[in-house]
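From the methods appendix. Each design record in this collection lists the tokenized structure first, followed by the designed amino acid sequence. Records were kept in a plain field format so they could be parsed without special tools. The example shown here is representative of the layout used throughout.

RECORD:
FOLD TOKENS (307 positions):
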């Protein structure tokens, strides 16, 4: 690959300052949302060092929209998926920090400023800063999904992934060190990366404000819930299982399978697919845990019987 990447017109920039943030926006056929995402970056009170739009083989007007924003750098490649696309952004970035933004998400105007201030002022000297997110859709703003507190981030990472790429600012050198996102995975590659960063000595800090707006729409719902389930179990076997005491590890894995299958059942129900059998299997595999699953299973059963 050339130093600038295909279609990337890199211009001379001002001298490097102590903290510079490269914004990486992967896009695939994102013409409906990309302009809003770019506008939210342009409005940042902490200016981005550079804005990199990495086009993953779009067939719509995404490239033209990105090029219409002055100063935005665009690199186009054949379609390869989000992990490869984000990795290309990491490779092309020249800032010492990378902030990811999915093309359909938005940032509050002070998102980068608050996160970079936290990075600068925390004695921990963090390598990764995460923030809370608020869901939104065409109907308006939804619930706020809190990020784990700084003291709890690592512990919660070994339970589930509680934040998304659009909420993360990470030290570029550490991203490069761990090899970025695993391009062999078909889902949960972000969770895998956060755990790799921790295992490489990365320090995490959490910003409690909901500075990331996560768009909820049909296009960003998993089209293959089973694939996501298998990927999450892959993350468990790679990172989490080995940390569990050998005596209880088989039971711990069954518990994780049960919890993930329960979530799979709910996702399949939302998509109008087979779901009751999956939920019952989850309960049989590990009957303990969140009792709310029994209530959901009962509702699924009642719905099926009364149709």
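DESIGN:
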């Amino acid at each position: 690959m050339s130093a600038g990447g295909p279609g990337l017109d890199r211009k001379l920039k001002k001298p490097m300052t102590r903290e510079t943030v490269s914004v990486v926006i992967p896009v695939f056929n994102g013409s409906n949302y990309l302009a809003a995402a770019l506008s939210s970056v342009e409005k940042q009170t902490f200016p981005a060092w550079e804005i990199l739009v990495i086009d993953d083989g779009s067939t719509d007007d995404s490239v033209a929209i990105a090029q219409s924003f002055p100063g935005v750098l665009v690199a186009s490649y054949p379609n390869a998926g989000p992990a490869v696309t984000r990795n290309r952004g990491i490779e092309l970035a020249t800032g010492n920090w990378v902030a990811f933004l999915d093309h359909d998400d938005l940032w509050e105007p002070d998102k980068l400023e608050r996160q970079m201030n936290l990075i600068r002022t925390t004695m921990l000297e963090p390598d990764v800063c995460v923030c809370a997110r608020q869901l939104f859709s065409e109907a308006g703003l939804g619930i706020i999904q809190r990020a784990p507190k700084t003291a709890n981030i690592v512990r919660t990472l070994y339970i589930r992934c509680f934040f998304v790429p659009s909420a993360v600012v990470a030290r570029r050198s550490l991203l490069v060190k761990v090899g970025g996102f695993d391009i062999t995975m078909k889902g949960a590659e972000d969770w895998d990366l956060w755990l790799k960063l921790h295992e490489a000595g990365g320090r995490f800090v959490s910003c409690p404000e909901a500075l990331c707006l996560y768009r909820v729409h049909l296009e960003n719902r998993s089209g293959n819930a089973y694939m996501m389930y298998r990927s999450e179990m892959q993350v468990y076997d790679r990172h989490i299982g080995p940390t569990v005491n050998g005596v209880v590890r088989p039971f711990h894995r069954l518990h994780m399978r049960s919890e993930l299958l329960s979530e799979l059942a709910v996702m399949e129900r939302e998509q109008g697919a087979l779901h009751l059998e999956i939920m019952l299997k989850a309960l049989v595999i590990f009957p303990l845990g969140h009792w709310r699953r029994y209530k959901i299973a009962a509702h699924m059963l009642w719905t099926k019987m009364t149709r």
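APPENDIX NOTE: Residues 225-305 form one domain.
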